[in-house]
Batch of 2 targets.
Target 1
Amino acid sequence: MNTQKTVKDYIRTIVDFPHEGILFRDVTTLFADPRGFRMAVDQMLHPYAGQRIDKVVGLEARGFILGGAVAHQLGCGFVPVRKKGKLPGAVISEEYTLEYGEAVVELHDDAITAGETVLLVDDLLATGGTAEAGIKLIERLGGQIIGCAFVIDLPDLGGRERIEALGMDVHALCA
Ligand code: 5GP
């Protein structure tokens, strides 16, 4: 019998968070475990080994934790996509639709140079709205997206189809 733990085994589900009816996938237990965290980071960058990646872009907030580690491992730069009003320099913005209302994400306008290759990183792909906004920001600066890597893909919410329809490679470690 194979008793080796997988990435999914380190993730717990919290019932009714942030509100009733939501099953929240909590990756803090994955990040807190040295084997789990290393496994997740290694598996996220595995498909891109040998490809030139100039920048890892991480989506706020858990994409910062994963993206920083992925960038360190690849030996490339890290760039944050943040919620509105958090970045100190000149920014470009993208608005996107949430379950209730709208949100805005921002990127420093000099964070990526046209032609640079980029790996987008976040913890979870649900509807794909957040990732799509990040992709639009990167492409507006002329970044060439090599792939979009997630720990979790929730397939029922259609995010993968939405992001693949933009011509992107989607890589997720578990559902
Ligand atoms: P989407 O825009 O694809 O609908 O939602 C994905 C974004 O919401 C990601 O940035 C992700 O961090 C966050 N998110 C939504 N649901 C969950 C969840 O159950 N667990 C975690 N860890 N993040 C979630």
Target 2
Amino acid sequence: MAKQAAKNYAVIGLGLFGGSICKTLVKRGQEVLAIDSNETVIDDYAPLVTQAVIADATDEIAMKNLALGQFDHVFICIGQNMQASIMATLIMKELGAKNVICKAESPLHARVLKKVGADQVIQPEVDMGRRVAERILEPNILHYLMLNKDVSLSDVRLENKQLVGQTLRQLALNDRYQVTVIAISHQDQVHVSPSPDTELMLDDRLTVVGKATAVDKFNQIAS
Ligand code: ADP
């Protein structure tokens, strides 16, 4: 019998995307509960993760019994079956999961997931396409650097219009997202150790440092 997972990370749906999340978390020493409705898939992941369970994510009682509401981070990586992905998201939020991160297959799917309570929605092809284009356009920019196994430094481009026009003090990024802005690049100018009164502008590049999970989360919010 596998040892009980610390209530930290659950990954539901172990296709290419969910599987990659699962393997990355395990490589980084995290305890992971992996769930999929397909027995063959679970057989492949059982040796890797803390606990692997065959279950239907739309089965509310099964999800409650697995204590998914107590997990800090739940990844819902069901793409093709949109109905299941939406229902599972709703169930996780109703059970009380703090941070529910979902994969969407289309912009409409993403909107529905947000409406039912997803904390973060990822569209892998769209997000990856943007990153690839950015790397080609700006090859000199540092995108991500792990300072140790937990802490990373990253450039985050500000594309979220809701954050534009606010000062660093108003945004309180340290308190809200546990990231520290160490530099802001605006067009060709780089402001190191920016003052709290610095107002952020669209397309500014923020160099932030923090726990990798916090930096990733802030990246999602800023873009
Ligand atoms: P990818 O494009 O990342 O490969 P898929 O949508 O093809 O994603 O794969 C999703 C995974 O989610 C599959 O392994 C599938 O068995 C699983 N899955 C689909 N529906 C459910 C469900 N209701 N509950 C749990 N797992 C599911």
